[in-house]
Every structure is written in structure tokens, then in C-alpha cells.
Amino acid sequence: MTTRTRETTRLKPHWSSIFENGTGARLYPYLMVMPAILIAIGVVVYPVVSGITSAFYDVTLRTLNSGDMPFVGMRNFERVFADPNFMRASLNTVIWVVLNVVAQLGLGLALALLLHRIVPGIGFFRSGILVPWVVPSVVAVLTWRWMYDPSVGIVNEMLVRLGVINDYHPWLGDTATALYAVTVESIWKGTPFVMLLLLAALQLVPKSILEAASMDGASGWRMLWHVILPQIRVSFAIAAVLTFILTVNNFNAIWLMTEGGPLNSSEILFTLAYKYGFQRFDLGRASAVATMLFVGLVIATTIYLKLIQAKEAD
């Protein structure tokens, strides 16, 4: 190698040195996260924006085939509100969400307080309670559907033997019980997740605070309400928001157990949107329902988090 070649080689900067100072150093962090940002845009942002946009266009099999999808403004929303099933699905969604959130938070907190105690074999019980959460959702739903079977289901067998009911009952086939039967499965499946979040928060509460409160005479409900809950309010808020979002989007439970029936008695907005889109092939109306769900989730979550922040500021 000649002297000139060696000098030229030394003058060429290495790629690693470009990002050590100056503009390259400022761009380096952004370049590192760029692949993740592009994936998030393609997987999350684009579908959301596309779904919201479709709510304002006439998107059906006919228009998709012709390539002409005219702008219809709020017509899809008007057609959704004119559908009598929409009001029934909205009411069912409220019942479905309220029962799930309240029951999962209450049972999750109770189990977390119970498992927070240090007793022999507590690790075994902690692992056992997590089983419903780790079971795949489809497996859990199909298992509960078999348990609810009106002829051979274990639920009817147990209730008859305990004297709660006199005869086998079609829990998923009765308009009065279908929604609540599915709710029981959803609570069973989601409670361990809430318990895990709150148990982790309880283990971070300083023992000195609990001991000081105990010396001041706090115990039982007073200890829970005035000492423990304020210490874990952030984790409790996160658990409430996540439970709310997961419950609204819990499509598998209702669809695989009842498909929104019988007679739309267990229909929620998520299953209604699915029927619009994949049974009636009216993607415009399906997008309208999905958009309303999305906006509702954003508003409810924002209000709840603002209330928590305001309480912390006080």
C-alpha cells in the first residue's frame, strides 16, 4: 500500500465516529428508535386513522369493488343511531363494563390484601390464583361455555345439588341471564391481573407507615381507606383504566359464548360493530361504532386520570 493510499484511508471517517459529536450525535437516538416508531405507525396509528376516516365514507363490498367510496359525512352515524339494536348494545355495554370493573377491582383488592400476608404456603396460593389469567382466552371461554351447558354443565349440577335452583337452567340461552353469565367468566379471567398489580403496589408500601397508623389506632376499614388506599392510589388508577379498556375490547368472551344473543340480550358495541363489518359487510357503519368506542375510551380515561391527578395535587 502506497503512502498516498494510507493517507486517503486515514482521512475517510468511520461510521462510528460520525455519531460521536455534532449533528450525528443529536440524530443518533432518533435513528435508534426509528424502526419501533415506523412499526407503531404501521400497526397502530395507520389503522386507527384509517378506521376513523372510513366512518365518514360509504365503504361496502360494492363500493370497494368499484373503487368509488363517496364521502357521506355523518350519515353512517345517523344510520347507527337509527338502528334499535344500537341502544340495546349501548346499555349492555354499560352494564358489562360497570360489573366487570367494579367486581374485578373489588375482588382484586381483596385477594391482594389476603395474599400480602406472609404465611406458610402463600407462594402456592399466589401462583394458583394467577392460573385464570394465564389460560388463553379462547380456552377459558370454551371451558366456561361447556360448564354452562344446560344438560351436562357442572354449573347447573352444583347449583342443583346445593339447592340454589330446582332444575337445570340454560344460562347462555336465556335473555335474562346470558349477559351476566358471560360477565362471570370475564370477572374470573380478569381479576388475577388486577390482583397482581395491587399486590405489587402493596409490597412497596413502607411498613413504617402501617406501623405508625396502627399505633395511632387505625385498623380494619379505617386502615384500608385512610392509609392503604392512598398509598396505592396510582396503581389502583392504572388497574382501573386497564380493566376498563380491556373490558370494552373483550370481544372473545361474548362472541364465543353467545354471539350477542339470544335476541341481542348480550350484544355489546364491539360485537355490533363486528356484525356490521363482517356479516352485513357495511364497513362504514362498523367504523362509525368503532370510532364512538374509541372516543368514549379516550374521554373516560382522560377524565379519570385528571381526577386522580387533582386528588394527588390536593
The sequence of SSEs as H and E is HHHHHHHHHHHHHHHHH
Q: Give the % helix.
A: over 70%
**CATH homology superfamily name of the largest domain:** MetI-like
Largest sheet: none
Global outline:
globular
The number of distinct structural domains comes to 2
- The CATH topology name of the largest domain reads MetI-like fold
Unreliable spans = none
CATH class of the largest domain: Mainly Alpha
Secondary structure tally: strands: 0
- Tell me the radius of gyration: 27 Å
Query: Which band does the percent of strand residues land in?
Result: under 5%
Kindly describe this structure.
- This protein is an all-alpha fold.
- The chain folds into two domains: 1-43, no CATH class; 84-313, MetI-like fold.
- The chain is 75% helix and 0% strand.
- It is built from 17 helices and no strands.
- It has helices at 3-11, 15-18, 22-54, 61-66, 75-82, 84-115, 122-129, 131-134, 137-147, 154-162, 178-202, 207-215, 220-231, 233-248, 251-257, 269-278, 283-313.
- Helix 6 runs antiparallel to helix 14.
- It is globular and about 75 Å long.
- The protein starts with a helix and ends with a helix.
- The mean pLDDT is 84.
Any chance you could write out the topology, listing elements then pairs?
Elements: H1 3-11, H2 15-18, H3 22-54, H4 61-66, H5 75-82, H6 84-115, H7 122-129, H8 131-134, H9 137-147, H10 154-162, H11 178-202, H12 207-215, H13 220-231, H14 233-248, H15 251-257, H16 269-278, H17 283-313
Helix pairs in contact: 3-17, 5-17, 6-11, 6-14, 9-15, 11-14, 14-17, 16-17
